[in-house]
Specification:
The chain is of the alpha/beta class. The chain contains 16 helices and 18 strands. The N and C termini lie far apart (61 Å). 42% of the residues are buried. Bound molecules: NADPH dihydro-nicotinamide-adenine-dinucleotide phosphate and the ligand O=C1O[C@H](COP(=O)(O)O)[C@@H](O)[C@H](O)[C@H]1O. The site of NADPH dihydro-nicotinamide-adenine-dinucleotide phosphate has 20 residues, from helix 2. Belongs to the glucose-6-phosphate dehydrogenase family.
Amino acid sequence: MSEWQNPLRDERDKRLPRIAGPCGLVIFGVTGDLSRKKLMPAIYDLANRGLLPPGFALTGFARRDWENEDFAQVVYDAVKEHARTPFRQEVWDRLAEGIRFVQGTFDDDEAFDRLADTVRELDEERGTGGNHAFYLSIPPAAFPVVCKQLARSGLANQDGESWRRVVIEKPFGHDLESARELNGIVNEVFPEESVFRIDHYLGKETVQNILALRFANQLYEPIWNASYVDHVQITMAEDIGLGGRAGYYDGIGAARDVIQNHLLQLMAFTTIEDPVSFSPQSLRTERIKVLSATKPAEPFGETTARGQYTGGWQGGKKVPGLLEEEGFPPDSTTETFAAITLEVNTRRWAGVPFYLRTGKRLGRRVTEIAVMFKRAPHLPFDQTSTEELGQNAVVIRIQPDEGITIRFGSKVPGTTMEVRDVTMDFSYGRAFTESSPEAYERLILDVLLGEPSLFPVAGEIERSWEILDPILEHWTKQGKPDPYAPGEWGPPSAEKMLARTGRTWRHP
Ligand SMILES: NC(=O)C1=CN([C@@H]2O[C@H](COP(=O)(O)OP(=O)(O)OC[C@H]3O[C@@H](n4cnc5c(N)ncnc54)[C@H](OP(=O)(O)O)[C@@H]3O)[C@@H](O)[C@H]2O)C=CC1
Ligand SMILES: O=C1O[C@H](COP(=O)(O)O)[C@@H](O)[C@H](O)[C@H]1O
């Protein structure tokens, strides 16, 4: 064979799509909301993009008395309703050949033995090669029993030639102690490198783009620190209510639901030092370092706010308050809005407050990171000419209208020197012809490829709870959250929380 190598080949290979090797995926909880709306459509989308191996197998495990064909019909309906990419019959036919169903409950040993038989048969019939991932799309209380069943039935066994991986949905625990306990149980069955804890925000293109923005450019990094940044606001606002989600949400609340995971990860991506490389280990090391340096600002009575939506009008429709939503007790103290202040005690960030907020039934659906810069030390203009000038800002829009906006002052055309804010916009939709894959597509593919960069490790999860636990304890003592009407941006206490520091929230 010639020793000559095409000098462009390595670079080109890096851009070729990464296709999973022979494998299968078992989903627990296939009748659930997440599975129907996100997981099954994402699997079809991956198949449609040619990223799954030819003999790929999808096995569902649930209580319903179904045959393989019944489950295949459920997957078909989910794909038709929710898939991102166009439906192609030949892709579906190929995928459907590998669909299996196992009926059972989580405490049923025989059901798990049947699952083990099914997996063995798939290895023979479909050539899955003993490589299987188990996706726990189930209530968090059931994570331990399913892990134990996977161990008991031998499904977690890896023989060195093949792999077994477990995928665990959020929330991972409800405080530090329960997260540690759960990590212990999971790690008794699966080594840490086989555990993929899902935080679907890390699968979003725009979240990964934070790293590109910061580390692929020279423009931002020199000013990305306490000398130039005044504060950072991270917002995840939703306009929907919690109808139909009481079983999961009551007693959990906004902070556990999204601050502990999505928002702290957004903060970590915004604040990490440049990783040595983009290897999973380097990225995780930097994320853990910054989370370890993060503390909630005190006193919590002034630095946090929490609210619960009341009934009212939104988008021209009458909507119920949380306490009128089905399944929530009339005295529920679950918060549907949460805002907290964090300090990142590193040389780069000391003194810069990070304000994180999230809520349901707010003004609109938007997730963004707004890096707000200090004002120029001196303005050589009349005071009246700069009255409408705000702070410079870099706003990273995670969703919708994914992109980046930079706000700066500009002269208003005319004979006077009047300066006003203008914006410069980068929009994914306009800049690229490629459409963004759904977060779950990216993450499921990464599980099958064994690529762990975008999955939080045990240490990150535990650090996040350490940050949040003292605030949650304070709120428990406080009792009822403050009311806010649908369409508002949280309760008045949220505005006060920033007003005390002379700042205001953005109302994006
Ligand atoms: N829905 C979402 O948008 C999101 C969900 N998540 C997480 O994903 C996971 C699943 O959520 P979601 O789909 O909403 O939950 P659902 O309540 O809609 O579904 C739960 C699933 O678990 C099954 N199940 C529950 N108990 C048992 C049991 N004893 N034996 C067998 N099957 C059982 C249910 O089966 P059956 O139909 O028979 O009851 C159902 O398929 C949770 O951890 C959640 O926190 C995370 C982010 C977003
Ligand atoms: O994890 C969760 O995220 C969803 C919002 O996800 P997004 O990708 O649409 O921003 C949220 O509604 C849910 O409460 C939470 O569990």
